[in-house]
Write a structure and sequence with these properties.
heterotetramer, B: alpha/beta, Rossmann fold, 6-stranded mixed sheet, 10 strands, 36% helix, 24% strand, C: alpha/beta, 7-stranded mixed sheet, 5-stranded parallel sheet, 12 helices, 39% helix, transport (chain B), ATP hydrolysis activity (chain B), ATP-binding (chain B), nucleotide-binding (chain B)
Chain lengths: 364, 259, 415, 524
Amino acid sequence: MSATIATPAPGTTGRLTIRLVLIGAILVLAVLPVLNQLPAESTLHVSDFIVSITGKWITYAVLALAIDLAWGYAGILSLGHGAFFALGGYAMGMHLMRLIGPRGVYGHPTLPDFMVFLGYQELPWYWLGFEHFPYAVLMAMAVPGVLAAILGFLAFRSRITGVYLSIITQAMTYALMLAFFRNDMGFGGNNGFTDFKELLGMPLNTDNARAVLFYASLALLVVAFLACTRITQSKLGRVLVAIRDAESRVRFLGYDVTRHKLFVFVLSAALAGLAGALYVPQVGIINPGEFSPGNSIEAVIWVAVGGRGTLVGAVLGAFSVNALKTWLTTVAPDLWLFALGGLFVAVTLFLPRGLIGLFAKAPK
Amino acid sequence: MSDGYSPPLGRSKDSSAPVLYLDGVSVVFDGFRALNNLSLVVDAGELRAIIGPNGAGKTTMMDVITGKTRPTAGVVRFRDHDLTRLDEATIANLGIGRKFQKPTVFDALTVFENLELALKAPRGPFACLAWLLSGEARRRIEATVEEIGLTARMHDRAAILSHGQRQWLEIGMLLMQDPELLLVDEPVAGMTDQETEHTAALLVRIAGQRSVVVVEHDLEFVRALGSKVTVLCEGSMLSEGSIDHVQNDPRVIEVYLGR
Amino acid sequence: MSTTSLTFTRRAALAGLGAALAAPAIRPAFGQGAPIKVGVLHSLSGTMAISETALRDTVLMMVEWINGRGGLLGRKVEAVVVDPASNWPLFAEKARELLQVHKVDVTFGCWTSVSRKSVLPVFEELNGMLFYPVQYEGEEESRNIFYTGAAPNQQAIPAVEYLMSADGGDAKRIALLGTDYVYPRTTNRILRGFLNAKGIGNADIMEEYTPFGHSDWQGIVARVKRFASEGKKTAIVSTINGDANVPFYRELGNQGIKAEDIPCVAFSVGEEELAGIDTRPLVGHLAAWNYFMSIKGAPNEELLKLWQAHIKNPKRVTNDPMEATYTGFRMWTQAVQKAGTTAVDAVRTAMIGQKLMAPCGYEEEMLANHHLSKPVFIGEVQADGQFNIVWKTPNAVKAENWSQFIPENANRRRG
Amino acid sequence: MKRPLLGLLLLLLLALPVRAQDAFTGALPGLAGGFADIATAVERLGAAGDPRALPVLRALQEGRLQKAGDGRILLPEGAGLVDAATGQPAEAAGAGAEAVRLNNRVRQALRGALGRLQILSPDPAERQAAAEAVFRSRSAENVPVLRQALARETVPRIRTQLELALAASQLVGTDEAGKRDAVARLGSAGTVEARALLLEARGGNPDLVTAIDVSIATIERTLSLRRAAETLFQGLSLGSVLLLAALGLAITFGVMGVINMAHGEFVMLGAYATFLVQEFCRGIPWLAPWSLALSVPAAFLVTAAAGALLERGLIRHLYGRPLETLLMTFGVGMILQQAVRLAFGAQNREVLSPAWMQGTLLLPGGISVTQNRLWIIVFGLAVLLLVFAAIRLTRFGLEMRAVVQNRRIAATMGIRTGRVDAMTFAFGSGLAGLAGVALSQIDNVSPNLGTGYIIDSFMVVVFGGVGSLAGTLVGAMTLGIVNKMLEPWAGAVLAKVFVLIAIMLFIQRRPKGLFALKGRAAES
């Protein structure tokens, strides 16, 4: 009995099966780059396309996890997580730009092409340090984290919740999008960063680099999943659920709700930033379009489709919606928006607990 | 009361000094005076019942004490602390627990977990993350569960409890908080007579170790508490004294009992 | 808790998807008679759909056209249409899908520079071939891309020269208005260098950028009016893109800026864009392109006939990027016939030096720098939404993708 | 251009038929040449002052003038063509005849020439336009004819314009006293055009520099005031667009608490409804001028119906779950956008502005405002008043407020709450359609139309205070004006970014917005 006290909803057996399923799924994913190395004639061969697209989806899954942690557990529906993801991406993008070095079109030793072009004489101060990989990774977490901390502190302190918070976070990502579109910001304007050459000494656009990035993303997903599971199963997780369901009651119990929400919001933003940092070298471009409010909403919808407040659902949602999108944009280029839009409507209407609700018992 | 419940340690109690002190408190919403120059003193270990018609300001008074509502004017003190400057969480951590009129428990959590959240312990996010349930804590929780009669339902989610059971669970949570002052808003609404009796006995037992303020409509229940009674009307104190005293106060009869 | 079904679903989802995507890849390599595949990588949804859907239709029209003539190398030509949804990373993903999964022989696609930049590494890595049909800022050259739109010296510079000529109104002051992205930024940088070289100082140049889809032009148009009141003949050079043009021109018309006083020459406004504007107040404003629908001659009539029949609308307009797509497609078919194969390396070699009597009425030639030689036309907006050509170059102009007006290009090898 | 003044004077005063005929017929063949020849010919025709030049130049301006293969200039008259030189019908002219084309240089010459020819016209409107044209063409040769016109003119407005034109013409002449006089007069005109003329003259007249600078300073003072007024107008205009876009949300979100992410798409539907009404009216001549007016009810009904459908079909199942509603309506928005794209094509659709919404209106004090934006401000305020009246004065408004305040009690009073919900949502959606009508006059009518306004509208409602119409009005106007005030120094993008940040900070300070509902009711 006591063993189950801390872990309520799914019984021990349920948890075990979920674990087995997860381990199985991870193994299937992990074997993809290996199958990629098989000769193309082999029936088990997996194309580069599948590997690179799956790598991308894994980073989306991490983003979905981050959103689920904040929304599914603490009830913070951020429509600005795309911005945190993009900021992480920009941090990594800056690192990749610095690594291009003199190989740019204009051959400038330090300045990226677009700066040469806009007449910069030297690197702006905020670009300093990004030539170091650890610094870039740190920034990929710190910048979204600090932004989330500022925004969260102001909003949570003023007890802005629910749709108001959603609207504010949406305004945040919109403002960032407008700002990053400006070429004068020093982030490459509309084009953002592209034409990356290498990362950690590996030339990008090789099978090898793709596999390394794939495994790094997979590792991040596993670690993030375990960390989120740990959090949600701790007393903190239960406080978050309590906040989600009855915020003011938690205050009367003596919990400083602002701090708890801030903790999870900042953590979630930093995780989204890390996901973005792994996304960028895999897709080869980062630009302000990533800040567009629609992107953030879509990411939230992945979580809703999969089933919020379950973690597994977030991952499932990210994979299934994106797979569907990839498939539909090719087989039904004119009609895919109907299918996807219809899916969003159907899920919110008929599957309030998402796809996972089809299989699992009622979650928290 | 079960052995599992141990009185708080190291609490310096000056039984002569009042625990709660309200003086000249007014609350104005959009020109409507919800509280009008209200004064109230509750002593350490005292059990106080507050009655009054709807809209008399009972809940607003609770809101003011717990930091939910800021008074427009007046003094609200808990021991040495000026409550008008503090937020709900800080006030709760000073030792004021509140049970709401409409039972508010966390539906997604089990009975055990609800109590665990209320259990007096470090409240920060990192502390919560690192929290491990000690044997001592579990014993206290289990004892309280027994106290509130929910042992059989300890691992059921609160969502599926009956109304009365939710009332009890919330009282249990209040106990877990180990407060010095309990504010209890209509604890017996929706309870059977037997449960009501049980609750009255529990509150009487608790008082003495700590101060309890009970807001209630049920005069039988108030009588069962056998405590001093304060009657509120239109945001002010109308009458104060024993139940018999207030029941015979003509002003009280006019505005409340007489109707 | 039905864990088995969960496992099943997850695996099935991945496996099913893999099968769906990989199915064409499992087929045997193309033998004689297998269709030639043409990838179409234009946005059909999102902000760029407004411009790019017409290009998708153009490619489909050309595929129909070539099949109507018996196909290519005796094989059927098949279009593979995907929707990159105005999402730049999705462009890269779809490019990879076209090349690796659908094994397309050639791709026609992209409109914005950023989408081209996004797919460029993919085409280079997988040695694909992309035809890019839109005028752009230059400063690029990839062996895997053929640029069939104009380079800056084939559009921007002749247009400004015209403005400064007696016919164009003797402009001595230029307002450079653009959408804030790389094409306007680069073009304006080149123009600034050019204007400086022509003796127009920076005090007589105004440069202003607005975001995509900017809809409130009141302030900027008022500022241009003021800029024009400094006692020198002023002209506007607009690199405003897409959606923002309708509100811009409406404001221009409503604030009474007449072409006689302050002519505005645009590089991104063609017949398609004008279709959404009441052009009567705008008569006399200008656009510079390498093709106008109003050009006379058999090659253009052929294009118009094909297009209006394909789209089943006798009033539907053509524009410059459509002509560039058409020209690119025809040159590609010529090159494939010359090479006798669709293999990228062979076709690439065969492409250089391909000539075509293009709908613009001039013979265009694919140069070694993967750009075309093209004539330049200046057209005046007419009340019916068409352009009246008021100036043209005597010959096709060779593309300079590396502009001589950008100092950093001085130590570069000329393309 | 170098003909002696005296000759021109004689020409005009005596109008010697022989000489005029010479000048007129001599200039005509130039119209068959290249653009430079045409421009010269036009100038000569204008200078000649021959009455026969007027129809020729008008025909040229309207693109009706033909040139025959043999170089003759043909003027359309009735159904046929006449030879402009002889006035004889041109029999076999059709072959090889083509329209004489214009470019900006020709248009410029044409404007000056027509101005000069029409400045003595009996029609005051024509004289006014002519005086403006002569002002712009700034030629010293115009001085005598302007003096003549001034001597006759009685309409004060045209006199002012003529005086300015005279000053402009004198400024480029050689008469020093006249120039000095002109500088002073242009200074008092206080327009950008006058400033341009003075700046232009500054370089070539060293001894007038001081006088010119004084005049320019005078103009600058007038202009800076006028600019402030115009900035205010621009702000109000942007504000009125925001107001229209947000009013529907003020109902659906503010009153009902429904987050409708497809609101922008409803705006877009309204714009397409306007387009359809226009296309319908195009074929019916007597209806055509009313198409925009007809669009107002049509757009309202179309979007209201769409709204009612959305509410009854989908949203009502999600009451009490605002976040899910948000996600679902996002999906609805995607579907609507693509549906319109497939039905109408991705390209922009052309919605014409009626004549009364085109061009600029000159307010007292020389403040010029664009007509379309002025009307949109009026429209926005009118819609606001109607909404206010609908809520306060109608049975529907009463029921709506009742349902919002206490659904259960309203239901027990016999109000069909479901119907009221549908009607309220339809009402808010219909308002979005009205915004679409207005936006069709300033923005693209394309499937993406709505996406640009959705976030701004939400910000307006949240900033103004949810559930408060006054808040929506004040919020929209404040945002519009602040945005336009920031724009000149921050640029359009940063201005918007600053405004967004300011709103975000403001909401932290006052989570309920500018016009917050206070008290217990607002707590829940």
